[in-house]
Amino acid sequence: MRKAALHNLGCKVNAYETEAMQQMLEQAGYEIVPFDEKADVYVVNTCSVTNMADRKSRQMLHRAKKNNPDSVVVAAGCYVQTSPEQAQADKAVDILIGNNKKHELPEMLERFFAGREAGNPVLPGEGRPFFPAGAAAGTERMAGGPMHQEEPSAAGKQGSGCRSIGDIAQEREYEKLRIGRTAEHTRAFIKVQDGCNQFCSYCIIPYARGRVRSRSPEDVVQEVKRLAANGYREVVLTGIHLSSYGMGLENKDAIGKSPQEEVNLLDLIRKVHGVQGIERIRLGSLEPQIITEGFVQELSKMFKVCPHFHLSLQSGCDATLSRMNRKYTCQEYEERCRLLREYFHHPAITTDVIVGFPGETEEEFEATRRFLKKIGFFEMHIFKYSVREGTRAAKMPDQVPEGIKNRRSEALFADAAPMNRHYLEWHLGREVEALMEEKVLIEGQEYFLGHTKEYVKVALPLEGRQEQGLGNQIVKAKAASLLKGNILSI
Question: Which of 101, 271, 452, 460 is spaced 20 to 30 Å from 171 by Cα?
Fold first, then answer.
């Protein structure tokens, strides 16, 4: 029995795909071992969202080869797409797999090992199998407007098997990856969509992931049913651009819709809502444009939908949003938050914010700061702008110095703390409902930790209680106090 180790970098979509690849390898007879142990195969599911992510991807690939120089090291995913020439030249890597080809991993390994056993070994860096689903290097065009994808060159169509970004842009079929369990025991992330058509000026992801493709509702529902049968009570629907779910689906009349009718995220949520055994449906990151009154009104009728909404913002200044190629204004964003609060009782609204975007003046930053306070978020994920080669923003003038980015980031973290505490303190004295997950130690005392539908952490003290049977159970109790780490004690 060969041993395989996997390491994931990046987003929840990558995590899902890593789980799927691991389960495929298990079904193919591999023994899965920790990444720091000696293995026959190492699979690194790479990330390329920033230059630093590229560097971490390379570091993990080199660490794998150092763990066992005789191993087969597989680089999978976004780094392979965005830096194909660099990845192909890396002598630590034996097999490269781009996005939309990860389902072929066991077959690729079988072919690789068969070549070795036949006395035709494939040496690192020399004639390696190269299986990308597309690559982005050297194909972006700025041309004044948002980045767009052009037809691949002849070199991209022939020769090495490395297809260009133009090819992946044409792909419409959703890659069929499936899971029956996840690393978590109560909550399962389910990938339902891939790709992005937005082309925000700071983002490489449309080049790494290609255009929008959606998973069929039937396939999603079947996976949810499998997970429910395995004891999962909460599912999280996730994707690269979840709000665009439905785009790219073919044969729509086969799923109960005429070709003229649109299949969208709301349709999918309704279908998942009908699966017995699933008690919570959580949504991944949403774009503001999807939050219409009709959408929110329909969501509010489905009691399994968690009132926890991650609504991407990036900046609270219209001028900055325009340079980012974000397709909404602050006023429109504020209206979306108002709708969520109108139809859901005290929902948790979280967001992403980028500070120090090229050209961001002190006045623009202060406008963002005022807007964030005005909205009043449960949590904010604050990022300092990081130059990503291959994006339009990387070539913009007036890049902000690191020292200013640091100061602005620290200011937003300071602003976020009282917002977070204000949201949590609202729960004190009120009944909360938590799905319990694991035993933890907080300030020397044992608790059982869980999350509310709003994704607020809740801790149940174990003193005088039996912990057996608490895992994966829903507990209702009044929130009594706020513990260290912003955890509600019940």
Answer: 271
